[in-house]
Amino acid sequence: MEVNVSTVIFNWINFGLIILILKHFFWDKIKGIIEERQNLVNQTISKADEDAEKARMYLVKNEQILQSAKEEGKKITEAQRAKGDKLYEEIVQNAKVEANSIKERANLEIEREKEKAEYEIKKQAVDLAVELSVRALEQQVDETTHRKLIGDFIAKVGM
Questions:
Q1: pLDDT by residue (tens digit) across 108-151?
Q2: How far apart are CA 138 and CA 118, in angstroms?
């Protein structure tokens, strides 16, 4: 293969002319498009950085809100627990008061029944004594009869 020097020089001249024509007519447009594209990329990167920073700020803010909500929940739980403990203590105290009241009423009732039983025993003793006296007055009482009547009286009274 043979290389013709004039063809190579002519091709170089043509190539240079095409570059000059392209540079004259299209270089500014291509440069403008490239700059515009670069500006768009830079804006997109800036926007992405801003969005990432906003996301980080929201994340921190959300973590603070979450922590605050946890603390508030803990406070509410503690308050409710304290309220429940207080209510429990009140219920226990009321139950103790009611139990003491029932115990006192039962003791009063027992005392009344005891007094009533004593009264009945005394009444029966008096009735028996009267009956014994009536029998004694109806009969001639000697010492053995008198002892027998007293023994019957004691047996009936239950002493």
A1: 999 999 999 888 887 777 777 777 777 666 666 666 776 777 77
A2: 29
CB 157 within 8 A of CB 124: yes
Distance CA(29)–CA(27), nearest Å, equals 5
CB 139 within 8 A of CB 145: yes
CA distance linking residue 148 with residue 141, whole number of Å: 10
Q: How far apart are CA 29 and CA 157, in angstroms?
A: 138
Least Cα distance to 102 among 112, 110, 91, 90 occurs for: 110
pLDDT digits (tens, 9 = 90+) for 73-107: 999 999 999 999 999 999 999 999 999 999 999 99
DSSP, collapsed to helix, strand or coil, labels residue 2 as: coil
Q: CB 20: neighbour CB atoms within 10 A? A: 11
Q: How many residues does the chain have?
A: 159
Q: Is residue 12 within 8 Å of residue 4, measured between CB atoms? A: no
Place of tokens 């406070």: 75
* pTM for the full predicted model: 0.42
Check if the beta carbon of residue 156 is closer than 8 Å to that of residue 128.
Answer: yes
The three-state secondary structure class of 129 is helix
